[in-house]
Amino acid sequence: MNFLRLFLVTTLLSSLLVNCGAYLNQPVAKQSARTGELTTTSTLLKNLPKPSEPIVVGVYNFRDQTGQYKNIETGSSFSTAVPQGGTTILNKALEDSGWFTVVERENLGNLLNERNIINTTREQYRQAGDNTQKQLPPLLFAGVLLEGGIVSYDSNILTGGAGARYFGVGGSTQYRQDRITVYLRAVSTTNGKVLKTVYISKTILSQAVSLGLFKYVNFQRLLEVETGFTTNEPIQLALTDAIEKAVESMIIEGIQANLWNTKQGKKLDEELINSYNSIKQEQEARLLYQGEQVQGKHKNEIALSGGVNLFYGDLQQKKFGYAFQVAYARKLSQRLAVELNFAPFEIRTGKKYTNQKYSIDTNLRIDLLPKQKTSTYIYLGTGVIGDYFLLHNKQTKDDKFYWKLQYGAGLNYSFNSRFAVFGFAQQNFALTDNLEAVKQGKFKDYYFNFGLGLKYYF
């Protein structure tokens, strides 16, 4: 009991200190203003190679197109779920990249009014005889417009948690994941052609961890201790990260489309494109919940596995024997497959009983996550059990075939489209009570197989 309690407390403390930075830096005093925090993409954006010539761009509006308000547990809220300063964030990202000369377009009316005031004032001075006053130079025009916006804010796309309590000591952890999505496109002002469009999404994580102790330490003496913290990833930083990633993608995909190029030349351009495409392919191979996809084009597979057998019969002692399997499977659809297995195994039970048998099984398999690199599957089928000595034509009076039913589940990890490793657990119900040569009671014999193996797809 003491060991279990110690293990529980250690586990909960570990969970509490995973984000010890937040826990150990709790705000207990006023803090002065500081410069804004950098995101994971900020440094990458600032360290990009310089362009051969900066591109003059204008951003009229990069707005929230979701129209979504904050979710609250009770009542309604008139606060928007997404910050409304998307244009400002985008202009800052464009400036930080060093690739663009940004011209003011969001508040163009204010700029034009101010220029009119300046020109009117100078004209009055010229009429008064001051010949030093000149007209303002023309405004810089943009060759490319950047359009788009925040198109989606999805709340609670993934929630969960865990908790435990033992003899008054316990704790819990909860998490919630939201998701923000932005689109950014470059439009030529010469002919209105959309030159390039990029799409970026960013998850937003919220976590809560708590630990408590509620225990009587003596008669009418109650000890109660609670601690914990909650962290919520700022939406503004998540939006900034997504927009900066969109700017980075726009730059490199523009290089790939020959819209612009780096100052260093073609060799560096190709290095940037290859590195970007490698990361992009890896990210595109992941599903919404971070499951990595694998391209399963092959219909056939061969599997070899080895493991142990645990037999449950009429003798009391249970021992592990060996178990091997050679299998062939054919896919009927993306999720369904049929299997044919040959499985030699050893029964070990009682004090000295040992016997070698084999089974020939047919299964119907369902792949629960067929596109993911790490996937699970379940199967159900029937088969026959034979004595190993029948394979060597050594007939005995006990050599018989028995029917059986089996079901199981497994975990599959694919290295690539050809090879995978897997582990499985299978329960087999023999339609006989005589597998270990002892027949008593009213229950049939059954056994478990546990194994690891290698698959080859073709």
From TrEMBL:
It comes from Myroides pelagicus. Keywords: Cell membrane, Lipoprotein, Membrane, Palmitate, Signal. The keyword Iron-sulfur does not apply. Residues 1-20 form the signal peptide. This is Outer membrane beta-barrel protein. It comes from the Bacteria. One of its GO terms (cellular component) is outer membrane-bounded periplasmic space. The keyword Lipoprotein applies.
